[in-house]
Automatic annotation (TrEMBL):
Keywords: ATP-binding, Membrane, Nucleotide-binding, Transmembrane, Transmembrane helix. It comes from the Bacteria. This is ABC transporter ATP-binding protein/permease. InterPro entries: AAA+_ATPase, ABC1_TM_dom, ABC1_TM_sf, ABC_transporter-like_ATP-bd, ABC_transporter-like_CS, P-loop_NTPase, Type_1_exporter. Residues 6-234 form the ABC transmembrane type-1 domain. Its main location: membrane. It is a multi-pass membrane protein. Signal peptide: none annotated. Residues 263-488 form the ABC transporter domain.
Length: 488
């Protein structure tokens, strides 16, 4: 009973450790930049890291349980054997360590096949995510058979690596046990001689059977010790791999929102690392309540100008909020100053309400009204409790876009960067939301990036970007010309 409780507690403890480690892991993966995640392959990274956490927790559990079970029992059995016939005991006890040494040598193969299996398992997760996310595109463009073949290849590679890894990890323990048990041949021979009175010690049949029984238990126990070493070693290797990810996220969930201040941009220039300058010498100032338009031809750098405010890459010149330089703020302060809505609505698979409030208290309807989405949501059978699906797949493009805007407005910051928030909307809806936006952001600077300009005549300032140059003025000012002298 006590033994059962002990095991139960250890298992519970290991489960808690596993859960906490995964919590930390998700936290630290979420903190990684979008660049790192896409370079390393989010699916592969997640799968490998999760399997590593499982191995660590399992190694720890086995170590804690078996150390008590196996260690104490082994000592007791060894003592008994030595008591009955120390010479025969020493001969018999050579075999279990031999099986350890062999297990140690074979570990390389077990680990190599195990690592290959994890690698394939990660690749399969990425391929599955890719197929699920792009299924419609593949069907529409008729690439389904090729993608299917590529997926099948991944699946076969996964099966092969799983079989290989399992064969090694499942077939070796019985072999170790056979090696440990090989000592029985000696026990039968020398023990028989003891019973006949010709051996090292005088035994009766009871001593003989007790010796065999003790040795059998010792061999069985020592094979669990070999398994234990394997599990602990596996845990060590896994721990080494995930250790860099095992730090608690530094950024708290909800940074405090900064106070409204004048935004002053001076001589701003930007280039992606290793690329040519995208734009330079952008200067403007904006007071809370102003909406600044950013426009220009395709790929001129509009979105990049918006992302500069996220400080993912260094910029030239200066962006000041009040008297504070953006690049010099710590991450937490900056998150409290800058709100950002990119092209991708980045909705998560939860209810409409949760997608807006993101765990905060508040009335989500207020923001749904602001983005003219309230009536459509009211007509849905589950209303504000409707689950939007991964990435908002159960909503139309325009609904997803407005929902993302509602979320950004719900978490208003002194500077709001909105990258093409109206691209999927009709003109009337766009105008209505624009008016609501203006009324709601009297205490914030809004940077409105868009290639649709008919609302721009109502903006205080417009930044025209083209071929690396920027002109800051109003909508009425003549547009800048490109290198061929044509108007943009
Ligand atoms: N992460 C990046 N690394 C390197 N170059 C990039 C990166 N992101 C964008 N670019 C390049 O920067 C240029 C400007 O891209 P950006 O998305 O800012 O343009 P845009 O004006 O917003 O375009 P659109 O009107 O199509 O939305 C493009 O040539 C693009 O290829």
């Amino acid at each position: 009973m006590g033994q059962k409780n002990y095991r139960l507690y250890v298992r519970r403890f290991a489960n808690n450790v596993n859960r906490r480690m995964k919590h930390t892991l998700y936290g630290s993966l979420v903190q990684k930049s979008r660049r790192t995640l896409s370079e390393e392959g989010a699916g592969t990274m997640m799968t490998k890291a999760i399997l590593d956490v499982d191995d660590c927790a399992e190694g720890m559990r086995k170590f804690t349980t078996e150390l008590f079970d196996t260690g104490v029992a082994l000592l007791a059995y060894a003592g008994m054997l030595l008591f009955y016939d120390w010479r025969l005991a020493l001969i018999s006890m050579i075999f279990p360590p031999v099986s350890y040494v062999i297990a140690e040598k074979m570990k390389v193969i077990v680990q190599r096949t195990g690592a290959a299996y994890k690698e394939q398992s990660g690749a399969l997760s990425s391929a599955t995510l890719d197929r699920a996310a792009n299924a419609v595109t593949y069907r529409v463009f008729g690439c389904e058979p090729e993608r299917m073949a590529a997926y099948e290849e991944n699946l076969s590679a996964y099966e092969r690596s799983a079989v290989r890894a399992n064969i090694w990890s499942a077939s070796l323990p019985p072999i170790y046990r056979i090696i440990s048990m090989a000592a029985l041949v000696f026990i039968l021979y020398f023990g028989g001689r003891n019973v006949l009175g010709q051996g090292w010690t005088a035994w009766d049949i009871a001593a003989f059977t007790t010796f065999i029984s003790c040795f059998t238990r010792l061999a069985v126990k020592s094979s669990s010790a070999a398994k234990l070493f394997n599990a602990v070693h596996k845990a060590q290797v896994s721990w080494k791999r995930i250790r860099p990810l095992m730090y608690a996220p530094e950024t708290p969930d909800t940074p405090e929102t900064g106070v409204p201040a004048v935004l002053t941009v001076q001589g701003l220039g930007f280039a992606y690392p290793g690329n040519e300058t995208l734009f330079s010498d952008v200067s403007f100032a904006a007071r809370p309540g102003q909406i600044i338009g950013v426009t220009g031809p395709v790929a001129c750098g509009k979105s990049s100008l918006g992302k500069v405010f996220l400080c993912e890459y260094p910029y030239r010149g200066s962006i000041r909020l009040g008297d504070k330089e953006l690049a010099e703020m710590d991450e937490r302060t900056r998150l409290g100053e800058i709100g950002y809505l990119g092209h991708d609505p980045e909705l998560f698979n939860d209810t409409i309400e949760h997608n807006i409030l993101m765990g905060d208290e508040g009335d989500a309807w207020e923001y749904l009204r602001m983005v003219c989405l309230d009536e459509e949501i009211r007509e849905m059978p589950d209303g504000i409790e409707t689950l939007v699906g991964n990435g908002g797949v159960r909503l139309s493009g325009g609904q997803a876009q407005r929902l993302a805007l509602a979320r950004t407005l719900c978490h208003k910051k002194p500077v709001l960067i909105l990258d093409d928030p109206f691209s999927a909307l009709d003109r009337n809806t766009e105008r209505q939301i624009f008016e609501n936006l203006r009324a709601y952001t009297t205490d914030a600077v809004v940077i409105l990036i868009s290639h649709r300009r008919y609302l721009f005549s109502e903006l205080e300032q417009v930044i025209w970007l083209n071929e690396g140059r920027a002109v800051v003025g109003t909508y009425e000012e003549p547009p800048i010309k490109n290198k061929q002298g044509q108007e943009v």
